[in-house]
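Hi everyone, sorry if this is the wrong subforum. Our group has a chain we'd like a structural model of before ordering constructs, and none of us has done structure prediction before. Sequence below.
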Amino acid sequence: MRNTMLLTLLLAVQSIIYGQNSLSGKITDLDTQEPVFSANIYFPALERGTMTDLDGNFKISDLPSGNFKMVISSIGYASYTQDVVLPSQDITITLKPSAIEMEEVIVSTPFHQLQSDNVMKVERESVSELSKNGAVNLSEGITQIAGVENLTTGLGIGKPVIRGLSSNRVLVYTQGVRLENQQYGDEHGLGISSKGIASVEVIKGPASLLYGSDAIGGVLYLNPERYAPESSTTASLESDYFANTLGYQTSLMASTAGNRLKFIARGSYAAHSDYETGDGERVTNTRFNEKDIKAGIGFQNSVYKGDLRYNFNNSEIGIPEELGVQSTNKDPLLPYQNIDNHILSLDNKFYLNNSSIDLKVGYQFNDRQEFEDHHHEDHEGEEHEEHEGEEHEEEEHEGEEHEGEEHEGDEPALEMHLETLNYNLKYNFPKFDNLDVIAGVQGMWQSNENFGEEILIPDATTTDFGVFATAHYHLSKIDLQGGIRYDNRSIETESYIAEDGDILDEVDRQFNSFNGAIGAKFDITDNLTSRLNFASGFRAPNLSELTSNGSHNGANRYEIGNPDLDNEQNFQIDLAVEWRNQHFEAFVNGFSNNVNDYIFISPSGEIIDNENVFRYQQDDAKLYGGEIGIHLHPHPLDWLHLESSFETVTGKLDNDDYLPLIPANSLTNTFRVEFDKGKLLSGSYSFITLKNVFDQENPGSFETRTGGYSLVNLGAGTEIRTNSALFELRLSMNNLFDKDYFSHLSRLKNDGISNIGRDIMLSANIHI
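Answer:
Right subforum, don't worry. Here is the predicted structure as tokens:
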């Protein structure tokens, strides 16, 4: 027995030792044969990488045996991919100089490839690039991606809109797990700080094959910032100032990494006053503040990789109702939200012989508290006086003093705790010729509990289970990808007494769906590529749609759910054509999305508590449209960039009524110059953008048309490099001419409240 155990141990040790491979090589310039310094060498499946030294050399240790894709990228060169069989001899690779922007690996799709190799069309942007345009928060920043908009209630509350679909039809992933923060509510924002997020990936269209329910309209995938490079320590201090809201945000990060163990931590704080419109009026109670902590511990050797991440976010967000007191105070008035959100995730990868197992588990706790006016009768008279819009300076000071005190020690009118445990287990089969196959299971357990006096939705338990398989086949000119999936969702609620006094019965519903996707990428010529994808998706109705019965402050209406709602089921066709060379790029994306049993809310004509009643209904719907754009960077003026994009979407119910909250058509033109190298300054840039938003002449049944408008934005920035630090300085000015306008996707439009006026952002960052 002892000999058998010893033999087993020796075999296990031998297997581990055999798997500890290293790869060395050199990267050179194809034209000059000079070494390429600071090129990135990365294995997406292993999530391991390094950079070349001054002589173009690199070495990566602790690699498992097997066949893996290696990606090499460097600024000023075309990204390069190659399959490497480990163990391997030293390799030498030449990179081709190119003015095309450096490609990155797409993480949100299962096979972790460059976008040029990907069958699905995925948009990817670094948060650093998005922040150059002066976005106040992440939900505003992503609107720079064609086909993506922002559904807002002031500045503090924003939801991503992908090709006309939003809320629970757009699934958000962060730290590798689906974000669950009661996002189904109209006045519930994204709740994620942009600080500590490295990049954003957007899948436009059904992604139920990969993610299950709620990915019917697309996926917003947030990649956390990476650890410091191996055997190094990095730190950064970032600070921003926003003139319009007199707002500021500060973030401090530190990261260190050894050969196998890595650590990162970041703390951020932001605070904003009420924003000012183009007419010079501050929109009362659009103020908000945010505290955010992110931390991570990583470990990796040749047989295992683990990444433990934690994010705590606390936000106080005012809920605007009408123009009133003109104040620059940053403490929210009533009504307001106080939200705590905890996200704990663990990403495990086990490397086997030519295959691997991925296991992601996540735990989230969301505590949402809402404080309302009618719980503070002692102050009602004073608050009404403030909301009369008195403009005398003495009265404004009285209002500011009152604002700082009026919610101290108050009990929330509404308090909901949402606990979520989710998991994602995948097996990556051994690569067979040019075929990659992945199979797995996903699931979620979730509970909702009420603790406040008011109950908008009942205590409930939701359970998800899904099983799927997907495959990718690569040929020289064609890539094929497809898969199938089955999901089951169970929702059980308790009975409760609604605001109107009715007793609402418990709900016990099961939702099931089979879904699939198939697509192909064709390299028609060296410069011309097309993608054609067919995908189905589904969405089970959420708790709010099934069971809500109460007043929603942010939406200014009384909502009543429908417990008999069915699954939404959709089928979408996507066609994307792209032509690119070193100095010119053009793309055309088109889609047609048919949604059966589309769930929407509509006024019923009833009045409860002096508010209009809206009820949830279903009907078939169709959305169609797309994006078209060009990018010119002419030779030899590679530092000059001319970009233009147009986006359109139309949504209709089966009865030909237009869908609500569909963004207006828009045309965006940008003139940009970039200078990457200089004796003292590097990474210098400047830009000017003209965004034309057209009239929205097709409003939904309870909307009004929205007039078009044009906004001019500009910005500039540079980097100062020393031997030990990198300094970044940025200036941007949005809405240069202080235009007073209404966005069709602003919930304040119905109250006659316009969007933000001119905003100047100053940023100063240091990285060491």
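For your construct planning: The CA atoms of residues 326 and 392 lie 10 Å apart. The chain has seven helices and 40 strands.
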